[in-house]
UniProtKB/TrEMBL annotation:
Name of the protein in question: Glutathione S-transferase
Superkingdom assignment: Bacteria
GO term, biological process aspect, one: glutathione metabolic process
InterPro entries: Glutathione-S-Trfase_C-like, Glutathione-S-Trfase_C_sf, Glutathione_S-Trfase_N, GST_C, GST_superfamily, Thioredoxin-like_sf
Record-annotated GST N-terminal domain positions: 1-83
Gene3D superfamilies: 1.20.1050.10, Glutaredoxin
Keywords, comma-separated and alphabetical: Transferase
Gene Ontology molecular function, alphabetical: glutathione transferase activity
Pfam families (alphabetical): GST_C_3 (PF14497)
Limits of the GST C-terminal domain: 79-227
Length: 230
C-alpha cells in the first residue's frame, strides 16, 4: 500500500525533503495535496487523534507522522536507509538542516510569518545580509566538515541526509544565485555530493518528471533580487 504524503500543492517547500527520499528509495506514495488540493489537505489534518501541527506529514497505518526529521528518521528505520550505528548522527544532521531551513524562511519573513514580504522589506534586507555573510557559511562549513572525505554522509550509499543536502543546495542556488556562485568553491565536498545525489537513478528520474515542483516566490526558498549579493 502506498504512503500518503500531504503537503501544500504548488510548493516544493518542506515536503520536498520527504519526496526526494521516497523517490530515491523507490517507495510508492501518493502526493495527496498535489492530487486533491489545499482544502482536502486542511480537512485531512483534522482527522483522527495526535494530529500534525502542520504539513508535511505521512499517513500510514492509520496514523500521521509529521515533522521532516521525524518522518525521515521513521522511513530510515522502516526501510533500512542507513547503517544502524549512524542513525542518531544522521538524525542530528537532519535536525540541523531543519534549523537552517527555518532561518532561510525567516530571511524573507523576519518580522511576522503572517505578513507579506512587501510589508517587511527593510527588515528582510537586514536579515538577508546577515544570513548571507554569517549564517550561510557557518551552516555549509559545518556540513562540509561533517562529510569530510566521504562520498556519502554515512555508509557506502545515499541516506536521507544526502538527499536533504541536495535540496538545500538547490534551494540556496535559487534563492541566492550570486552569493552561492561566490562561495561554492569553499565547499567542494558538498557540491560533489549534490552531483552524486542528482545522479541517483530514482532522483534523476524524478527530476526529469512533472512531479518535481519548481521553486517559486510562495515557498521557503524565494528569489528576490534585492536580497542577493556576492
Amino acid at each position: 500500500m502506498p504512503y500518503d504524503l500531504w503537503y501544500w500543492p504548488g510548493l516544493p517547500g518542506r515536503g520536498e525533503f520527504v519526496r526526494l527520499v521516497l523517490e530515491a528509495a523507490g517507495l510508492p506514495y501518493r502526493d495527496r495535496g498535489v492530487e486533491e488540493g489545499a482544502e482536502a489537505l486542511l480537512a485531512d489534518m483534522r482527522k483522527g487523534s495526535r494530529l500534525p501541527f502542520a504539513p508535511p506529514y505521512l499517513r500510514t497505518g492509520g496514523r500521521a507522522i509529521a515533522q521532516v526529521a521525524n518522518i525521515l528518521h521513521w522511513l530510515t528505520e522502516r526501510h533500512d536507509l542507513a547503517p544502524v550505528s549512524d542513525r542518531v548522527w544522521l538524525n542530528q544532521l537532519q535536525l540541523t538542516i531543519s534549523d537552517m531551513v527555518a532561518e532561510v524562511h525567516n530571511v524573507h519573513h523576519p518580522v511576522a510569518t503572517g505578513a507579506y514580504y512587501h510589508e517587511q522589506k527593510p527588515e528582510a534586507a537586514r536579515a538577508a545580509a546577515q544570513f548571507r555573510q554569517e549564517r550561510l557559511p557557518k551552516f555549509l562549513g559545518y556540513f562540509e566538515d561533517a562529510l569530510g572525505d566521504g562520498e556519502w554522509m554515512a555508509g557506502g550509499r545515499w541516506s536521507p541526509v544526502d538527499t536533504s543536502l541536495f535540496q538545500l543546495i538547490a534551494g540556496l542556488r535559487y534563492m541566492f544565485p550570486r552569493r552561492m556562485a561566490s562561495v561554492e568553491g569553499d565547499y567542494p565536498a558538498l557540491i560533489a555530493l549534490y552531483d552524486r545525489v542528482k545522479a541517483v537513478p530514482g532522483i534523476a528520474a524524478y527530476l526529469d518528471s512533472d512531479r518535481r515542483q519548481a521553486f517559486n516566490e510562495d515557498g521557503i526558498f524565494r528569489h528576490y533580487l534585492e536580497l542577493d549579493a556576492e
